[in-house]
Amino acid sequence: MNDTNTRFDHPLRWILASLCLSSALLIPPASAEIYKWTDANGETQYSQIPPLHGVKSEKIQSASPPADNPDTTSNTLQEQVDTMNKDIAEQEIEEKKDNLRTEIDDAYERNCTTATNNLAKLQEGGRKRYLTPDGKVTHLSEEQRQQRINEAKDQIDEFCK
């Protein structure tokens, strides 16, 4: 992961941020209208439901609900973001492990194939020649050929599991 990435560079971060914002905007206000009127018996009545038509009533502004403590809200949101970041980091680590396992498996398979092919060529018989790192062609002695056969068998044991 690049160090220059922002906090919202991963799709899951965008989704969580959108959900938090959406849920905050969809919460209905807690205050409701309160009606006050005097009934036929002269008693004062209070209700959130308006009286029947023809009864004179007055709307009373209810007190606003207490505001959430901004520090508590901020801490809660930060905990959610931290949890999400931890989950994303764990997911990224697992993806890297899976990719590394695949690369290792592929390398083992290539090495197995190479060792198997080398052993087959070395066991064919006849005089074996090979190209040296400096570009010269040389022939293997019988002892060198046997040594390379043993090396190829060891490689097969190591890579062809």
Fold blueprint:
Elements: H1 11-26, E1 34-38, E2 44-47, E3 57-60, H2 70-123, E4 129-131, E5 137-139, H3 142-159
Antiparallel strand pairs: 1-2, 1-3, 4-5
Which features would summarize this protein structure in a list?
3 helices, 161 residues, two-stranded antiparallel ribbon, 55% helix, mainly alpha, single chain
Structure overview:
There is one protein chain. The protein has about 160 residues and is mainly α. Among the domains are: about 30-60, no CATH class; about 100-160, no CATH class. It is built from 3 helices and 5 strands, in the order H-E-E-E-H-E-E-H. It has helices at about 10-25, 70-125, 140-160, and strands at about 35-40, 45, 55-60, 130, 135-140. The strands form 2 sheets. The protein has a 3-stranded antiparallel sheet with strand order 2-1-3, with no helix packed on it.
Quick overview:
The protein has 161 residues and is mainly alpha-helical.
Number of strands: 5
What percentage of amino acids are in beta strands?
5-15%
Q: Biggest sheet: strands, sense, closure?
A: 3 strands, antiparallel
Listing every helix as H and every strand as E from the N terminus to the C terminus, the arrangement reads: HEEEHEEH
Total count of helical runs of at least 4 residues: 3
Q: Give Rg in angstroms.
A: 39 Å
Q: Percentage of helical residues?
A: 40-55%
